[in-house]
Specification:
About 50% of the residues lie in helices and about 15% in strands. It contains ten helices and six strands.
């Protein structure tokens, strides 16, 4: 079972998510938080697999709540579920540790698919979010110093990862084994000093590492 914690200050939103998620045989909603502070507290109590995190909430916003949860429980995944699609909200959320960023207009079936993808280790971004990140790449001026630059093959893997592909899909696209892909991804995480696929994808887009 995938244990889900819902964090949103709107009762109607929480009820709607709870109603739909309860129909899924592989998902269990373990708690509901009305603000970021409660989200942090309940994450400690219930140890969910994933938190559906609103961005703007009283007491503590979703970005700070995400940062605090990930600092103590890095295994807990965070999916931002919000109405904001601008870069001023997207970038801080992902840099805080969010594994996915979706807008509240997402279809219920797509939301469930997104939850499963994140639990499987894949990144998930709303198309509008991807568009905003692509625009952000144009304003980047300097690439941070990387002690060990990525190899050509690691850049190829990173480019495929940024498209949201699974390890199996990357292996098929590059004609290598899944084991090889896993090794490359592990090396990429270490070199870029990121924790997961979403942060690696953000880094790649932000600094133009996927450009051919």
């Amino acid at each position: 079972m995938i244990k889900v914690l819902i964090a949103d200050d709107h009762h109607v939103v929480r009820r709607g998510l709870l109603f739909f998620l309860k129909t899924q045989k592989d998902i269990e909603v373990v708690g509901e938080a009305r603000n970021g502070k409660e989200a942090v507290e309940l994450a400690s109590v219930y140890q969910p697999d994933i938190v559906l995190m609103d961005l703007v909430m009283p007491e503590m916003d979703g970005i700070e709540a995400t940062r605090r949860i990930k600092s103590v429980y890095p295994h807990i995944q965070i999916l931002m579920l919000t109405s904001f699609s601008d870069r001023d909200h997207i970038l801080p959320a992902i840099e805080a540790g969010a594994a996915g960023y979706q807008l509240k207009d997402i279809e219920p079936d797509e939301l469930v698919l997104t939850i499963r993808k994140i639990i499987a280790g894949e990144n998930s971004m709303h198309p509008e979010v991807t568009h905003q990140l692509d625009q952000n790449q144009e304003s980047t001026q300097h690439l941070p110093h990387v002690k060990n630059p990525l190899t050509r093959r690691e850049k190829d893997v990173l480019a495929e990862l940024t498209k949201g592909k699974s390890n199996k899909e990357i292996a098929s696209s590059l004609f290598v084994t899944e084991k090889t892909v896993k090794t490359h991804i592990s090396n990429i995480f270490a070199k870029l000093e990121v924790q997961d696929r979403t942060q690696a994808a953000l880094y790649a887009v932000k600094y133009g590492l996927t450009e051919k």
